[in-house]
């Protein structure tokens, strides 16, 4: 290494050489009062810099854009539902395992029936979680009811696990007066204060991909300050990692040492954009290290692996006051939503292969059955019960009165401002003038 030093420093270097702390010294005398000295030291020279000591190197060395080997994916069950030899996982009781599987089946059937209702014109919109049931239910099972959830739009299974009823799901999707959002939101934009589940939002000016990530960090920091035995948990897709909110949230969480779990559902597609066009990094898991966040990659179709990873991550987050990033590898078997036809950008054979070869429900059922906790009779009874309850929930939701029109303008201001009152007046005048253009079942 070449160092530009003053004459005084030069004399100090000579003393170091004489004391054998420097092996060799080559002096180049310039016309200026400084000298350039080539110094070879026995120990690396390091610099104290914010964040820790940084070692110097005489070599021009660029950090590789990627590791030679990809980050491995943690799993417990193979594709056939058989437990891997020497697999490490958090033990699951019969009660928890049966509830996990039952809720996975319930979520799948609920999605099927609501999806068909939308295709029949009874719902305006719907988005399924086909193929991602294990991420939903297993992560919810590993959390505490006190943990605060900041969802995207494909996590209804977390609400289901916490006790949100099929009737409550139906009320929201049909937007009736029993809907907690009073009919203001699109279908599948659920929320529950009682169950610590923040309402899904899809406002245009605020990216729905990662809209709640920074909020989750703030909530986690609040839980930490209040010394609560709880953490914040936020879900997002692989496409969300391209949003600025994602990066701001990770950096914020790391610096503030907030107990928050970032759970990425890497399902291969951000609507029609494949991960190969989304990023060049080794998925999302490697992004955590760049921000100083402990991370893990998990098989998202393995319910036992997801349960164990989230359980351990939660313990670390709360005990050590740190954020954790979990990348769950899975596959979106369904269309992005009822507004999408995914066969226009991926093959039907690819979808079918994932649905059969790596189905999270059949995998987990095999393991539950191998423990003697499930049977064909139990399966038949469960599916019959769920179908009956779902059809009844839809019948009731459809017949329940819609929210009053005035709810469009309430719950934001204590006293509505003049411009909002004027908007309400204009809407009522328009309805009065053109009643045929407005739904007759909305009370005025």
Question: Total domains, how many?
Answer: 3
> Strand sequence of the main sheet, in spatial order?
6-7-8-12-11
Q: Which strand-content bin applies to the residues?
A: 5-15%
Structural class: alpha/beta
Order of helices and strands: EHEEEEHHEHHHEHEEEHHEHEHHHH
CATH classification, class level of the largest domain: Alpha Beta
Main sheet attributes: strand count, strand direction, barrel closure: 5 strands, parallel
- Total strand count, please? 12
Number of helices: 14
Summarize the structure.
With 444 residues, the chain is an alpha/beta fold. Helices cover 40% and strands 13% of the residues.
What does this structure look like?
The model is unreliable at 27-39 (pLDDT under 50). The chain is globular and about 85 Å long. The strands form 4 sheets. It has a 5-stranded parallel β-sheet, with helices on both faces. It has 3 domains: 2-55, no CATH class; 94-399, Rossmann fold, CATH 3.40.50; 408-437. The termini are far apart. The protein is built from 14 helices and 12 strands. It has helices at 7-18, 94-119, 133-142, 156-162, 166-174, 213-225, 244-256, 275-278, 285-290, 303-320, 348-357, 360-370, 376-399, 418-433; strands at residues 2-5, 22-28, 35-41, 46-49, 52-55, 148-150, 232-237, 260-266, 269-270, 273-274, 294-299, 324-329. By secondary structure, it is of the alpha/beta class. Helix 2 (94-119) runs antiparallel to helix 12 (360-370).
């Amino acid at each position: 290494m070449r160092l530009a030093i003053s004459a005084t420093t030069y004399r100090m270097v000579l003393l170091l050489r004489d004391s054998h702390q420097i092996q060799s010294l080559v002096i180049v005398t310039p016309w200026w009062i400084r000298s350039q000295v080539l110094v070879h030291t026995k120990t690396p020279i390091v610099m104290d810099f914010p964040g820790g000591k940084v070692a110097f190197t005489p070599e021009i060395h660029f950090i590789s854009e990627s590791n030679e080997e990809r980050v491995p994916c943690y799993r417990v069950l193979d594709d056939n539902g058989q437990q891997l030899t020497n697999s490490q996982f958090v033990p699951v009781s019969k009660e928890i395992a049966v509830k996990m599987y039952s809720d996975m089946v319930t979520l799948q059937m609920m999605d099927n029936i609501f999806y068909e209702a939308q295709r029949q014109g009874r719902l305006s919109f719907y988005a399924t979680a086909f193929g991602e049931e294990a991420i939903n239910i297993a992560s919810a099972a590993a959390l505490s009811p006190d943990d605060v959830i900041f969802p995207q739009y494909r996590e209804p299974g977390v609400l289901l696990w916490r006790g949100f009823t099929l009737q409550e799901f139906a009320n929201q999707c049909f937007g009736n007066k029993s809907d907690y959002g009073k009919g203001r939101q699109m279908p599948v934009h659920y929320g529950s204060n009682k169950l610590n589940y923040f309402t899904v939002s899809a406002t245009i000016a605020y990216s729905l991909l990662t809209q709640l990530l920074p909020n989750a960090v703030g909530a986690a920091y609040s839980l930490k300050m209040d010394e609560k035995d709880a953490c914040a948990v936020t879900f997002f897709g692989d496409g969300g990692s391209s949003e600025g909110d994602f990066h701001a949230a990770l950096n914020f969480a790391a610096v503030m040492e907030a107990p928050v779990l970032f759970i990425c559902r890497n399902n291969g597609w951000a609507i029609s954009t494949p991960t190969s066009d989304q990023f060049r990094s080794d998925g999302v898991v490697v992004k955590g290290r760049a921000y100083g966040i402990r991370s893990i990659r998990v098989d998202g179709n393995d319910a036992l692996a997801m349960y164990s990873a989230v359980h351990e991550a939660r313990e670390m987050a709360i005990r050590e006051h740190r954020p954790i990033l979990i990348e769950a590898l899975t596959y979106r078997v369904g269309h992005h939503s009822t507004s999408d036809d995914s066969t226009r950008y991926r093959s039907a054979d690819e979808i079918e292969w994932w649905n059969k070869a790596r189905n999270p429900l059949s995998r987990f059922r095999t393991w539950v059955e191998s423990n003697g906790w499930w049977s064909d009779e139990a399966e038949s009874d469960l599916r019959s019960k769920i179908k009956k309850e779902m059809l009844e929930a839809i019948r009731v939701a459809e017949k329940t009165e819609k929210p009053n029109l005035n709810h469009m303008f309430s719950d934001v201001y204590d006293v509505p401002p003049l411009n909002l009152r004027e908007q309400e007046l204009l809407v009522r005048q328009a309805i009065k003038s053109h009643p045929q253009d407005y739904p007759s079942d909305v009370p005025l």
